[in-house]
Design goal:
- The complex is a heterodimer of chains A (477) and B (143).
- Chain A has 477 residues and is α/β, with parallel strands linked by helices.
- Chain A contains 19 helices and 16 strands.
- Helix content of chain A is 44%, strand content 14%.
- Chain A has a 5-stranded parallel β-sheet, sandwiched between helices. A 5-stranded parallel β-sheet of chain A has the order 9-10-13-8-14.
- In chain A, helix 3 packs parallel to helix 4, helix 11 packs across helix 13 and helix 17 packs across helix 18.
- The radius of gyration of chain A is 31 Å and the shape is elongated.
- The relative contact order of chain A is 0.09.
- Chain B is mostly helical.
- In chain B, helix 1 runs antiparallel to helix 2, helix 1 packs antiparallel against helix 4 and helix 3 packs antiparallel against helix 4.
- The chains are: A alpha/beta (477), B mainly alpha (143).
- Chains A and B meet through helix 2 and strand 2 of A and helix 1 and helix 2 of B.
Chain lengths: 477, 143
């Protein structure tokens, strides 16, 4: 029986529960040359202890035991070790019992007397089924998930991300997430945090592009009272807030070189020094960084310190753009539809075939965030029922096939203004229309909030939200 | 790879009379000699001896339990031990004993099954005696 047995089969354990010494000795002899390991117990009490100590793969169970009613041990095993398979051994004329056992989850039954070949065949079949079931479960777990810790997606690309998140969360190594805007970098960071040993601790997110450069150091590392003009209060930085938790630094590529050096020192020593203080404080936090830029290109362009790059890039995770995620776009669209419909108090019956086709065909350059906005608009404007293709408003420049003509009003030359001015007017108009809510304005403009913060900073406009960039990031996905 | 719980046991002493007919040519009353020969073929002489020693020891034990159950008029205990004895007998080809176990209603009135139970005790002893003869030098299992 040992020839050709897979290693998985050889790792199986068989427990024989039989109160007759002679019969258990016989079965033991039958199974002696088989590839699986086995043990024998004679009472229900011993069986329970054996199962609780080390659950076997399969139990050969004689229903008639001296210290238990007929199905007592069987039912106990189903309740306490549901993953253990049971092969019931019954006496002649016990078909009713066999049927009861099968209905209650036994994998098979054998009627006594049981020949060597019959026993070996049944045990082998049961164990092979068990091994296959475990393999299927493992595959489903590893490759069949359609959502994970805030992510929605069943594509091969995302299965790889889920496994990566599970693997890296057990490590304390620094993680560097890259990916286009809207791919879910913060969702990824939160997933790692939730899976990690720091899950009970705080998750502190800092959008480095959303904070003015002269404030960024104090936002990250804190400040003592009076260290900054107009900021009389001492301030605990994000690093200290993240103690025993996770510090997520988004848009790390926006840090200037001086601050990059300070960050590197913090990563190397786990010590922070508040602005204006000489005292160093120890911080125990998991560090996750992210950028939507190509970090190595930034290094080569001299905008990112090479030593910091290597210090951060211990475990890189690249989030795939939506266009590389196949049917995930449909899963996400349905998920957003359900969620937004609930928020808006409307009822939708999914999408029409044409609407789904439109969703599939679009390239989604703004990734999940763009899809999220498109579905949000559809939910707001559609009355309910099935979402029609026309309700999925896309950026025409990114639509497949021909580009729809845009109506242009002819105006005198003198009225034409530089594109940058037009852009600034559009941005400021959107922010104003949203009551100063930058993330909301960014959604309507279909850009990331960080892009708006960057532009405001460039234009020297103070952020309406006060520049408090901590946790001021978008939730994607 | 199976771990063994049992150790070799001595053949039990047989106190009943040996059946009067010869068993040298496998002319058995209780045993299906083919079953015993299959054991021999699968496991060899030494291991088969060990198994048969275990079997015989258990038959002695179960015979005593039948006697105890009769003495204590414990119908439930009697039914349980007869069920077990039947399973053991079948496993080792002792079909005559198994048939007797099956013939009586051991789960009802104790008075009604007392006679059959007494027969069972005697048959149990005879089966042990038959096995001893089969295993003796010149017996069917040795030839």
């Amino acid at each position: 029986m040992s020839g050709g047995a897979s290693p998985r089969l050889a790792a199986c354990r068989v427990l024989i529960v039989e109160d007759s010494d002679a019969i258990s000795a016989l079965y033991t002899a039958y199974l002696e040359d088989s590839p699986w390991h086995g043990a024998v117990v004679a009472t229900a009490l011993d069986a329970k202890q054996s199962i609780l100590t080390s659950a076997p793969s399969l139990i050969l169970l004689d229903l008639t035991l001296p210290d238990a009613q007929e199905f007592e041990l069987f039912d106990w095993i189903r309740a306490n070790a549901p993953l253990v398979d049971i092969l019931v051994l019954t006496g002649h004329g016990s078909i009713d019992r066999a049927v009861r056992a099968l209905q209650s989850g036994a994998v098979d039954f054998l009627e006594k007397p049981i020949s060597r070949d019959r026993l070996l065949l049944s045990v082998r079949n049961a164990l092979e089924c068990l091994v296959l079931r475990q393999q299927v479960n493992n595959l489903l777990r590893d490759y069949g998930r359609d959502q994970f810790r805030g992510f929605v997606g069943a594509s091969v690309a995302m299965q790889g991300i889920y496994r990566m998140v599970e693997a890296v969360s057990r490590s304390s190594a620094t993680i560097f997430i890259t990916g286009e805007s809207g791919t879910g970098k913060e969702v990824c960071a939160q997933a790692i945090h939730q899976e990690s040993q720091h899950a009970q601790g705080p998750f502190v997110a800092v959008n480095c592009s959303a904070i003015a450069p002269d404030l960024l150091e104090s936002e990250l590392f804190g400040r003592v009272s009076g260290a900054l003009n107009g900021a009389p209060q001492a301030h605990e930085g994000a690093a200290e807030q993240a103690n025993r938790g996770t510090l997520f630094l988004d848009e790390i590529g926006e840090l200037n070189l001086d601050l990059q050096g300070k960050l590197l020192r913090f990563l190397q020593t786990n010590l922070v020094k508040r602005v204006g203080s000489t005292q160093e404080r120890k911080v125990d936090a998991r560090i996750i960084c992210a950028t939507n830029r190509d970090p190595w290109s930034e290094v080569r362009a001299g905008r990112f310190r090479e030593d910091l790059y290597y210090r951060l890039n211990v475990i890189p995770i690249r989030l795939p753009p939506l266009r590389e995620r196949g049917e995930d776009v449909v899963l996400l669209a349905r998920s957003f539809l359900r969620s937004f419909a609930r928020e808006e108090g409307k009822h939708f019956d999914g999408f029409t075939a044409a609407a789904l086709e439109r969703i599939r065909q679009h390239r989604w350059p703004g990734n999940v965030r763009e899809l999220q906005n498109a579905i949000r608009r559809a939910v707001v404007f559609a009355p309910g029922g099935q979402v029609e293709a026309a309700a999925i408003a896309l950026d025409p420049s990114e639509a497949p096939g021909t580009v729809e003509p845009i109506a242009v009003s002819v105006q005198p030359k003198a009225a034409i203004e530089p594109l940058a001015v037009t852009e600034r007017r559009a941005v400021e108009g959107a922010i104003s229309a949203c009551g100063g809510n930058i993330p909301q304005a960014a959604r309507l403009l279909e850009v990331s909030a960080s892009t708006l913060y960057r532009k405001l900073q460039l234009w020297g406009v103070e952020s309406p939200t006060g520049g408090g960039g901590v946790s001021d990031t978008l939730h994607v996905n | 790879m199976m771990s063994r719980r049992l150790h070799d046991k001595e053949s039990p002493a047989v106190s009943t009379a040996v059946p009067t007919h010869s068993l040298a040519n496998a002319d058995t009353i209780y045993f299906d000699i083919a079953v015993l020969r299959r054991l021999h073929k699968h496991f060899g002489e030494l291991r088969t001896d060990t198994l048969l020693n275990t079997f015989a020891a258990e038959l002695v034990l179960r015979g005593r339990q039948v006697e105890d159950a009769i003495a204590q008029t414990d119908a439930a205990a009697l039914a349980r031990v007869v069920h077990t004895m039947r399973g053991i007998a079948l496993a080792f080809g002792c079909n005559g004993l198994a048939a007797l176990c099956e013939s009586g209603k051991f789960d009802g009135d104790m008075e009604a099954c007392r006679d059959v139970a007494s027969q069972l005790v005697r048959a149990n002893r005879h089966a042990l005696a038959e096995l001893a003869v089969l295993r003796s030098p010149g017996g069917a299992l040795r030839s």
